């Protein structure tokens, strides 16, 4: 059954924000601010419209970034796309990744969606990702 994106997902949780299917896929990325500051980060999940990234720096909702995605490996062409920070949450002090930073890409990309889905499936087969009951990535 499809979920109404305006309803809370569980007691006490905020309404669902995603407008497209997310794929859990771990790959390196870089955030660049309008001031030219660059920071390495790690993807947690992505879709054609945006993603959740683990970062060591705190960004402000509404902040504009250039996001460079290294989804295809070290020798693949890098993707660069303008994005806007939509949400930041403290990840925790027990890891180098202090923040969960959600971004929305300015232009949706169906190519990115299919690459992320494929990478997610490959990482699952290799045992790099745990499968949950709610996972839909096959």
Q: What's a concise summary of this model?
A:
This protein has one helix and seven strands; from the N terminus they run βββββββα. By secondary structure, the protein is mostly beta strands. It has a six-stranded antiparallel beta barrel with strand order 2-3-4-7-6-5.
Number of domains: 1
What is the H level of CATH, i.e. the homologous superfamily?
predicted glycosyltransferase like domains
The N- and C-terminal alpha carbons lie at a distance of 18 Å
Beta fraction: 25-35%
Could you outline the blueprint of secondary structure elements for this entry?
Layout: E1 23-24, E2 28-33, E3 38-46, E4 50-55, E5 64-69, E6 79-90, E7 99-105, H1 110-125
Antiparallel strand pairs: 1-3, 2-3, 2-5, 3-4, 4-7, 5-6, 6-7
